[in-house]
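Treating backbone geometry as a discrete language has practical consequences that deserve illustration. In the encoding step, the backbone of a single protein was reduced to a row of integers, each denoting a local shape. The amino acid sequence and the backbone structure tokens for this protein are reproduced below.
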Amino acid sequence: MLRITTTGVVAPVLPGVTDQVLSTSVGHVTTSPWPGGPGIAILEAHDVGYFADNGALKAGDRFTYTSGCTRLTFRVTGKTVEKPGQSIVAPSSGPHVALISCWPTDALWWTSHRLVVLASLTQRGTVGGANAHHAAVPSGGFPPVATLPAGVPGGQPSVFSYVRGGTLKLTGSPSAAFTSSPQPLAWLGASLGVLAAYRQGTELNALWLFSLVKRPPPAGWDSMPLGSLYAAEHVTGDRVDSVTLLAQFGAHTVDSMTIEPIGGHLYVVGGGIWPAPASPPAS
């Protein structure tokens, strides 16, 4: 378990850096030692997930890594922005940890640089097993991520295979636990599922599209390339109030979509500058 008090992070650490691992956890690069071993242990996470606030870490900040009944305390010695594949040089011998995420820390999809936070071991201690895996999440966990309405098919082809980056921002008053968890990415994924369904529904002129729409949605998403896709999640505490998707070319916004969770399902509630689809035929 990785605990970074400065940024409010309490995260599980699993071996590997596959999409499956990073969707829920901090990943350990298995070709490096585990934290506490000689050399540099490399831990990676999504920039808009557990490591969203790593840019705020500074030299002297401390974090802990707990495994079983052993607790290791590390002190941040510095941070740099590097290109993928660059060597990480430890400032001294002994155990170190490198926390790596994409840079900038609100970027979506692939970026050309990485933020590397380097820290050195300062203390080894023990902790009771009952406390070793306590997570700073709300009692009962986070509210479940909303899903597509009944009758709206999921599993549409990817809508962002040709998207050129973008960012994910949190607005409102999100809790520290929400910000530093996989929840923002999980809600983004669900919202992109809404966009994918909308695009397919408009292309097929499907009647189920109207189960997805509470108020006239934009129609431009089905006929225009997305360009760069930006997302903003408005959050109150641990609850997502809405998600806004923006398609931009350069600095120019060409389309927007506002999505809200209602009764456990996600609905398009407006946005955009393009004509809405025609009303469903009278029964």
User: Anything to note?
Assistant: The chain has two domains: 2-126, 168-270. The chain is about 10% helix and 35% strand. Residues 183-204 form the longest helix (22 residues). Confidence is low (pLDDT under 50) at residues 129-135, 273-283.
